[in-house]
Amino acid sequence: MRIGVINNFCAGKNDEQVNRMLGFLRSHPDVLHIETESAGVMPDALADLARQEVDLLVVNGGDGTIQYLLTEMLVSGVFGEHVPLVAPLRAGRTNMTAMDLASHRDPVRGLEKLIACAEDGRIAERVEPRRVLRVSYGHGSDGRQRAVQYGMFFGAGIIKRAIELNHKLFNNDGQRNLVEGVPGATLVTAGLVGRLITGDRTGILTPDKIRILLDGKEVDQGEFNLVMASTLSRLFARMRPFWGQGPAGVRFTALAAPTKNFGKAALGVIRGKPANWVTPEAGYLSQNVEHAELRMNCGFTVDGELWQPDSERSIALTADQVIHFVRA
């Protein structure tokens, strides 16, 4: 099995961790590895690994790196029919995908385990097929070319603005901060949930006007505090804010503005185990669907990467593509 590593050393780890990884890779010359400093070099990096027929693609970065990689790999088809296994390491500021796969906390140890399993022929024991979220966005339905992003999580409303706030608060000087990434996101989210409980609907908590259609059926057209979709089982801070039933691949949740008794509902919603009265009529919607369509003016996020507001934007969410991930 040929292993290739995409290294994004700008993904948030400190110099000591970067040096550890580089030292480990130097001691394993049979493992191909490429350093990427920006998303712009991802196409060439993947094309190089495709030419060398990599079977297992290890991603030494965070959720944003995986999002760029999935988009380039699935949109361009650079690997053709030989799509490699993908193993995310917990090496970024946010690592929801790697954590959902229960990857090792230490990226070097995770890569070491992968190499050992490959040498012993045991990689299959760590493979977990997962659907990937396809986010298609543009304007209208006149058949014009729409842009496409692939990832594992989509969010609009306060979740998008919370990520922007997190960046401003904890990473505004470009230096690593002890509370950036998941700790910072957890703090910001907790603060915003607290404000929602008090009924605050100002500033960052101003709701967005969104029209929602699920599997072709319009479910609501109004104001929403939050809309999100994912193919992950859990998000950062072990949140599982999805409680829809059925095998459809897109887990979708929306919180209307206002919601009924959010203070009482919040904990159950975050855990994916809401009370019986938490229903669409009370402003809480969660379904598993094959296709979701959103018509809105607000911005959105895919795996922490941000897209700014645009007038009358239409977004389609599906999850037909399956990638075979590997637990590192």
Describe the structure.
The chain is an alpha+beta fold. Helices cover 29% and strands 31% of the residues. It is built from eight helices and 15 strands. The two termini are 15 Å apart. About 2% of the residues have low confidence.
Q: Provide mean pLDDT, rounded.
A: 87
Q: What is the CATH T-level topology of the largest domain?
A: Tumour Suppressor Smad4
Number of helices: 8
Helix content: 25-40%
Radius of gyration using CA atoms only: 20 Å
Q: Any low-confidence stretches, pLDDT <50, length ≥5? A: 172-179
The CATH first-level class of the largest domain comes to: Mainly Beta
Main sheet overview: 11 strands, antiparallel
Q: Could you give the distance between the termini?
A: 15 Å
State the secondary-structure class: alpha+beta
From N to C, what is the helix and strand string? EHEHEHEHHEEEHHEEEHEEEEE
Percent of sequence in beta strands: 25-35%
Summarize the structure.
With 328 residues, this protein is α+β, with helices and mostly antiparallel strands. The chain has eight helices and 15 strands.
